[in-house]
Amino acid sequence: MDSFDLIVIGAGPGGYVCAFRAAQLGLKVALIDKRATLGGTCLNVGCIPSKALLSSSEHYVFAKQHAADHGVKLGSVELDLATLLKKKDAVVAKLTGGVAQLAKARKITVITGAAKFASANTVEVGDQKLTAKNIVIATGSAPVELPFMKFDGKTVVSSDQAIAFDSVPKKLVVVGGGVIGVELGSVWARLGSEVTVVEFLPKIIATYDDDIVRNFTRIMQKQGLKIEVGAKVTGYDKGILTAERGTEKLSFPADKVLVAVGRRPYTDSLGLDKAGVELDEKKRIKVDAHLKTTAPGIWAVGDVVAGPMLAHKAEEDGVAVAEWIAGKAGHINWDLVPGIVYTDPEVASVGLGEDAAKAAGIAVNIGKFNFAANGRAIAADATDGYVKIIADAKTDKILGAQILGRNAGELISEIVTHMEYGGSAEDLARTIHAHPTMSEAVKEAALAVSKSALHAL
């Protein structure tokens, strides 16, 4: 039986980062994953390939619709889907290969296969048995399947298949208007598909403020997405997806249906009962404030525990657990996990939204600044959207922010940084921002909290 200081089950961002940090701290580490390539869902079939598709499809739309406005005459523009998908696969291969090289350089033992617990400190992978004082569960999540409309991998698909259609669907219906649904819907709409997003809730990307969603919805519709909200899907048969909105019966022709109604913690076949690891009512692994499970020496990180199912959250979990295991002072601020929708324009948020603050009876001051008044945004044809800062009315402490606009996912980071040390809107407003940059809109929004914006009335 092979013995280690730490066994990590699952090689996604939470798992491999945990293994890397533990190895840096001198621990003997084994990293187990059922895939032949490391990186988990994120690198193999999630975050990375979807962003590659988003980027390539944006290039296609620019060449077809906007290049001439910049004096770039291209003539006929045609889509070569096979090459586009090959590019996506090359990006995935480079990153998964890079993770493998880093694991090898850190002398981490990588084992391919499905792991299951034999006991609280013993894991089996096929015929191989491994033991460790500490074991981290980082097995991630899987797409939620609708019981009345199961995945067939060809017509009714999850995001795993929707990143690899071999032809552009003529009519694509996306069930679910969350991040995954609108991102992949926007990809295929750009490439020529007639896309309809069907959402059960009253709005898409429902965690964002109403004003952000209203503007975002308008932009997505302008880009060709049809959006149906407040609609409950009832089935799919003979190329027709059916739904209902109150007493209204709806039907949508579709040669492909992407079901993107969420993800579930993936703990299948792990044998958690043999290890004494308990689940909560949502089938997530129960953990304490230090991500310890109900079994001594077993920890859990990322999508299998409560909290946002985001790769960067999983990474922070993994680093902290590795440090706690090594006797260090790990740190995570779960209140400041940014969320991003990687459409064009992007949507990003952190902390408390305006709607949530008002619903909780918290007195806030709001500062907004439109990209339409930002010089760099005008030069780059990126004037859609705005920055919104939410600050405590009494203390001026930044409570949250939401951004709709080009590169919102990058711009949100400096607001997270100021919030990490408890910074105020004035602190952010007095931070020098280079000119001309889109980040100046963040400064102006912070100034607007005290009605001091310089480039807007």
Written overview of the protein:
The protein is α/β, with parallel strands linked by helices. The protein has three domains: 2-142 and 264-335, FAD/NAD(P)-binding domain; 156-261, 3-Layer(bba) Sandwich (FAD/NAD(P)-binding domain); 345-449, Enolase-like, domain 1 (2-Layer Sandwich). The chain has 14 helices and 22 strands. The chain has helices at residues 13-24, 40-45, 47-66, 81-105, 159-162, 179-190, 210-222, 272-275, 311-325, 354-359, 375-379, 408-420, 425-429, 440-449; strands at 2-9, 29-33, 109-112, 115-119, 122-125, 128-137, 141-143, 156-157, 171-175, 194-198, 226-228, 232-237, 240-245, 248-253, 256-259, 263-265, 298-300, 339-341, 346-351, 364-370, 386-392, 398-405. The strands form five sheets. Strands 1, 2, 3, 4, 5, 6 and 17 form a seven-stranded mixed β-sheet that branches. It has a five-stranded parallel β-sheet with strand order 8-15-9-10-11. A hairpin with a 5-residue loop joins strand 21 (386-392) and strand 22. The longest helix is centred in the N-terminal third of the chain and has 25 residues, at 81-105. The mean pLDDT is 97.
